[in-house]
Amino acid sequence: MRALDRLLQGWRIRAAARWIPVGASVLDVGCFQGELFETLRGRLGPSVGMDPLAAPREAAGYRILRTTFSGSLPFDDQTFDAVVMLAALEHIVDKVPLARECRRVLRPGGRAVLTVPSPVADRVIELLVAVHILDGMSLDQHHGFHPGLTPGIFLPHGFRLEHHSRFQLGLNNLFVFRAAGDVPVTVPAADDRRASPP
Fold this sequence. Notes:
Layout: H1 3-17, E1 26-29, H2 35-39, E2 47-51, E3 57-59, E4 62-66, E5 80-86, H3 95-105, E6 106-117, H4 119-130, H5 150-154, E7 159-167, E8 172-179
Parallel strand pairs: 1-2, 1-5, 2-4, 5-6
Antiparallel strand pairs: 3-4, 6-8, 7-8
């Protein structure tokens, strides 16, 4: 990863982190090398990351699995307080089964927190890759996915849309879906809901 890739990744993590309660057990789908867990070290409960490019390992408070999503998640019902997918949904072909599985592994009141780039972002990334400023990992796997389709994937499976905003100069989207249930989840203060860089 180049410096700009890391900067953009860190920006996505900060946008998502505001919606992950302290002590939450998190499943990070598309975790790469576990950067979310390292950024939030000491703030999360026992967590798991999965990514086909990951180096499998166990660390304090989390473990990383080298695996792809293949229709089901290898976890029991109601295992996690949050499922996070940062720049990941667009890479997954079978999105509807993934939404269904996210609801199954989330506890009532838990959150699915996603970032999804806009179609314009792909063209910007292609240009930055061409001039060797960005690696733009797995750009060819975006499958032409439009972020506007995201609510229609999650809402029919026991979620409600809690938050949507654009960030990264409007090139990325933050979606926060809440699983049906009555378990209270801490909501960020109004001034902390902005998905902006520090």
